Amino acid sequence: METPVVRNLLENNDAEAAQLRALFAQRGVAVLNIIGSPGAGKTALLERTFRDLGGTFSMAVIEGDPQTDNDARRIVAAGGKAVQINTGGGCHLDAALVRNALNDLDLEALDLLFIENVGNLVCPVEFDCGEDCKVALLSVPEGDDKPEKYPLLFNLAAVMVLNKIDLLPHTDFNIERATRSAGRLNGKLATLPLSCRTGEGLDGWYDFLRRLRTDKAAGMRAAAGS
Amino acid sequence: MAFRAFCLTFAAMHEASLVASLLTIMREERGKYGPGARVSAVALCCGALSNALPEALATAFAVMTRNTEFSGAELTIEEEPLRLACGACGEEFSPEAFPLSPVAPCPRCGEDFGHRVLAGRELYVRRLTIEP
Question: What is the pTM of this model?
Answer without folding.
Answer: 0.86
